[in-house]
Design goal:
2 copies of one chain form a homodimer. Chain A is α/β, with parallel strands linked by helices. Chain A folds into 2 domains: about 5-160, SPOUT methyltransferase, trefoil knot domain (Alpha/beta knot); about 180-235, no CATH class. Helix content of chain A is about 45%, strand content about 10%. The first copy, chain A, is built from 9 helices and 7 strands. The first copy, chain A, has helices spanning about 15-30, 45-50, 70, 95-105, 120-125, 145-160, 180-195, 205-220, 220-240; strands at about 5-10, 35, 65, 75-80, 90-95, 110-115, 130. A 7-stranded parallel beta sheet of chain A has the order 3-2-1-6-4-7-5. In chain A, helix 1 (about 15-30) links the parallel strand 1 (about 5-10) and strand 2. In chain A, helix 1 runs parallel beside helix 6. The longest helix of chain A is centred in the last third of the chain and has 19 residues, at about 220-240. Chain A is elongated and about 85 Å long. Chain A starts with 6 loop residues before the first strand and ends with a helix. Chains A and B meet through helix 1 and helix 6 of A and helix 1, strand 5 and helix 6 of B.
Chain lengths: ~240, ~240
């Protein structure tokens, strides 16, 4: 099932913190094939483990290679991420565009990310079929390695995601029915009427409609309607004292 | 011009590293209004400066507040980011959906982000009109604070971005004309003919067409066409030795 999920390949990564943060970002969006080419501080790496927040424990073991070509051996399509202009002629995709291309393919895809200081060198980019470049503020284009991995992982998940937008539960209370809201509005109008809220009979329909609109937009729960009845009762009671 | 760009408000942030990384992510996507509510280690913060990679230097000074309500005083619309279900009834947006809502509004928007350990507390969420929740792997939903800021900043930029997809320059050489490519193909076919590449006259048109297709897909530059003429010359020369 996972065999066609893209491999994330960090070439000459320097800081373990960034390797760990990249692994965490991958896990956040369901990726798990992490490969390292010549990590500066070796592997395993304590800073990587600390920054992964447990992500490395739920992924297959990270694979280590001596050169980029070896890391790509089982891959069919290779993308190289770079922010800098290069004297090479390849198609350039945004992360979103690349994710749409990749999600339609049955072949194994690899995405190369360069080290923190200089990015990918030209020999590594020459191994790639296409370029991924994040559309970034031209006045501040120094983007962190793990942040780039996050954006690509996020867009890959977005491209594959056919579930409806994520909605949080609203607690134990159901949404109020139209009738429940209507009863509240009728009661409120009656109380406002008896407390001389509507200055003239002519104004009443418009003012009542405006009030209803406010409550309609609020999409209240049954509990909230009950709460509002309590508010009205309390205000009335206070006034009568 | 910048007055309607959203404010990013970190509530009770703990690690300066994450504050700096958040600032860097904001700068990457053109945001600059960073506010902190009760940063644990005070402000300014050395770790934040180091991790911002210069982003804090190009932004207005970070504003510090004692409580969330004070930080929100000039804001009209407030979003709270949270990954956990809450017993509150508010509209929940993905970062992309929220960015589309925000980019259409003239009012000042604020986006609240909770601290590393526990996120936003319910009192802070109650100050918000809406929720932003990143659609994340339910099996690994521990997302880094700065990574969440990055995703929201990225989607805000995407929603406002009307520029065409970003394409890297291809160096000094222009794309080859059809004529230049055609001359290369004719020469290649002639050389292949004289070197007995085409096994039978029947096969030649199909084989030649297949070769042309390869070169057409490559979308070569003038320089690359010249290079390929050199390759042919070299190969011919080697064969004649």
């Amino acid at each position: 099932m996972e065999q066609n999920l893209p491999a994330i390949i960090l070439v000459n990564p320097q800081m373990g913190e960034n390797i760990g943060a990249a692994a965490r970002a991958m896990a956040n969006f369901g990726l798990s094939d992490l490969r390292l080419v010549n990590p500066r501080d070796g592997w395993p790496n304590e800073a990587a483990t600390a920054n992964a927040s447990g992500a490395l424990d739920i992924m297959p073991p990270v694979q280590i290679f001596n050169n980029t070509a070896d890391a790509l051996k089982d891959c069919h399509i290779v993308y190289a991420t770079t922010a800098r202009p290069r004297d090479m002629r390849k198609k350039v995709f945004t992360p979103k565009q690349a994710a749409q291309e990749i999600s339609g393919k049955a072949q194994k895809t690899a995405i190369l990310f360069g080290g923190e200081r200089a990015g990918l060198d030209n020999d590594d980019i020459a191994l790639a079929h296409h370029i991924i470049s994040v559309p970034i503020n031209p006045d501040f284009w120094s983007i962190n390695l793990a942040q780039t991995v996050l954006l690509v992982s996020y867009e890959l998940k977005q491209a594959n995601d056919e579930t409806p937008p994520f909605v949080l539960p609203t607690g134990d209370s159901d949404p109020a029915t139209h009738e429940q809201l209507n009863e509240l509005m009728i009661r409120l109008e009656q109380e406002l009427e008896s407390h001389y809220f509507f200055r003239s009979p002519d104004m009443r329909p418009t003012m009542a409609r405006n009030i209803r609109n406010i409550f309609s937009r609020a999409e209240m729960t049954e509990q909230e309607v009950r709460t509002f009845h309590g508010i009205i009762s309390a205000l009335i009671g206070n006034k009568e004292k």
